[in-house]
Automatic annotation (TrEMBL):
GO molecular function: ATP binding; phosphorelay sensor kinase activity
Location relative to the cell: Cell inner membrane
InterPro entries in the record: 2C_sensor_his_kinase, HAMP_dom, HATPase_C_sf, HATPase_dom, His_kinase_dom, HisK_dim/P_dom, HisK_dim/P_sf, Sig_transdc_His_kin-like_C
Primary location: membrane
Major enzyme class: transferase
Phylogenetic classification of the source organism: Bacteria, Pseudomonadati, Pseudomonadota, Betaproteobacteria, Burkholderiales
Topology of the protein relative to the lipid bilayer: Multi-pass membrane protein
Boundaries of every HAMP domain copy: 175-227
Domain called Histidine kinase: residue spans: 235-433
Protein name: histidine kinase
Organism, as annotated: Duganella guangzhouensis
GO cellular component, one term: plasma membrane
Catalysed reactions, semicolon-separated: ATP + protein L-histidine = ADP + protein N-phospho-L-histidine
Amino acid sequence: MRLMPSLFASTLGQILLINACASLLTFFLFVAMLFFPANPPWPWQPTYRITSVVRVLQHIPEEQRATVAASQDQAGISFRLTAAPVPCTLTSGATVELSKAFAADLPDGPTPSVHGCDASDPDRNIQLLAPIGHYWLEVRMDATGLHPPGFKLPIIAALTFLCAGVIGMSAWALARVIRPLARLADKADAFGRDMDVITISEQGPDEIRRVARAFNIMQERIALTLRNRTRMLAAISHDLRTPLTRMRLQLDTNHSDTMRDKLRKDLDLMQSMVVSALGFLRTGAEQEHKEWLDLGALIATLCDEYEEGGAAISYHGPPQIRCFCRPDAIQRVFSNLIDNALRFGHTVQVMATVGAEHIVVAVCDDGPGIPAARRADVLEPFVMLDPARGGRSGNVGLGLAIVRDIVQSHGGSLALGDRAPHGLQVSVTLPRQ
C-alpha cells in the first residue's frame, strides 16, 4: 500500500498518471460518440429520405400526394397514402432508434410512430405512420442496416490496445529520462559521503547530459579544492614546525639581545607563509566586480615602482591597453610574477602585445629557468623546485597557482617557456572583451 503514494510522488508516476487519465478520457469520449451521436441522427440515410418525403407531401396539393408517395418506392422501402392504416405494435431496438431520429428531424409536427410488424423478428418489417393532412403516410421497410454498431469486442480490444500502447510508450520514454536522473542522485549521494570522484556517463536528452557534465565538473572541482586545502594545511604545518622549534631553542638557550632579531626574522617567515596560504584560499572567491582597466598603465606603474626600489626592470608595450577585468586581482597576478622574476633573476623585462581578440603579457627573467618536464608541476599548489627556483624557507609553493587561478577565472591562460639565452618567460593571455 505504501508503494502507490511513493510512485505517484515520483516524476515517472505523475506523468504516467496523467497519461492514464488522458487515455481513459479518450476511451469514454469515444464511447459517448457511439451511444450519443450528433445531428444528423443515426440512422441518417433512411431518416433523411423519409423526412424529405414527409416535408414534400406536406407542401404539395392533396390530389398529387398519392402519386408522389408511390413514386418514392425503392428496394427495401415503400411509401403509400392510406386513410385507415392497420398499425403494428411491436417495439425493438431498431424502432426505438428510428423514433428518436424522427423526433429530432421533425420537431415541428406530430412525431411519426415506428413499430415492428413481424412477431418472430421485431427488428424486421418495420412500419412508420406519419400524418399527412387527412391521410396517413405508411412506410414499410426492412431493418437491414438500422442496428447501431454497438460496443462490441473488436472496439473494446482496439481501445484497450490504444490505451495500453500510449501508457507503455510513455513509460519507456520516461524511463530513458528518469534513469539518468536516478543515477545522478545515487552518485551525488555517494559523493556526499565519500568525496570520491565517480564520473557519470553523459546519457539521455540534452538537458540531462548537460546536468551530468556539470556534475562531473563540480565533482572534480570540489575534490581538487579539498586536496589543495589538505596539502596546504600539511605544508604549513610542516614549514611552521621549523621556525617554532628554532624559537623555542633560542628562548631556552640564548638570553642575549641578538635573540630578538632572530625571533623577528622567524616571525616574518611565519607571517609570509600564512599570508600566502590565505591568499590561495581567497582565490576564486573574490567578490570584486569586473570593470574596464588600463592594463598598460598598470604594468608600467608596477615596473616604475620596482625600478625606484633598485630593481633592473623595464616595460615594452603599448602605453594604453583596455582590459575588462578585476583590477585588484590582475594587479596581484603581475606583482607575483614580477616578484618571482626578480627573486631568481637579475634583469626582468615585461612585454605586452595586443591582438584582435587577446592581450598577451610576457614576464621574462635571466635566472636559471625551469626544466620543461617540471613546468606543469610548478603550476600546481604546494609544488616547490629545489635548488633552481625553490627551496626557500617560508615558501609554500602557492605563487604560480594563485596566478593561474586568477587568469583562468578571467577566461585566460598561463604558459611557461624558455628565454634565450637562459631564463624563464611567463606568458599571460587575457581576452580583450
